Hints:
This protein is α+β, with helices and mostly antiparallel strands.
Amino acid sequence: MSRGRLRILSAIGIGCYALAAIVGFFLLADHQGYGLLVPLWIAHGVLLALLLTKLCADETGVTAALLVVGASLVAVYIADLARDDLTLERRGERITATVVRDWPAPDRGREADTYDYALARRDGTRLPGPALRAGSGSFAVGQSVTVLADPEGVLRPRIPGDAHATGHVLGVGAFALMALGVVAATTRRGAVVARRREERARVADQEHTLREALRTASADDHGVIEVHPAHYPDVSHRRAAGIAGELGLAPADEPGSWRFRR
């Protein structure tokens, strides 16, 4: 099997592994904590670095592995959001509730205007589960609002139409394709690097052969040694003249000739 075909098969295998890792981490994310997921992500990155470094034949494999892991991590995160959206769309109940309390979201991060809104049914019973989350001032206490609520109280209620499952699915596909694109680009770079190395090795071998030919060849009656350029297709005449000069030989004829005089 040629090296080119082997490289393509290796790239396909790495791409399939990257996709399988995205699916695997997505399935684990809902059942396992960071104590297990973080070491698994690290091991995944190390394995990818080894595979991609071997594939591209230089140190850029580490950078490529980081890009694949980053794209995979984002894909898993978006897939988790899509799962919540799809679950809420499937089992959620559309109800009209009343805002009974609001407060700044505790995990709002940089989104300083994000608030949580506690909701109650018309009979006064509180909606189970997390509070509705929206921008500051979106709702006032006592205001009625129609939401899609999780009857099991696990998922956060949302305004109908705010669940963007389709967009999230497209986002997952985009980042998965990005990971595959990095693998493809790494494969292409590996082919280029390998070709350049082969060319350098071939030129070095021909230069060595030419050097030995000039050093050991017998000169004619005029002290001239002639070599045939067809035997050294990757060695330029200028380089051949340089090698001859290193051995104490000088051009015997007009410029461009492969005849050298001792």
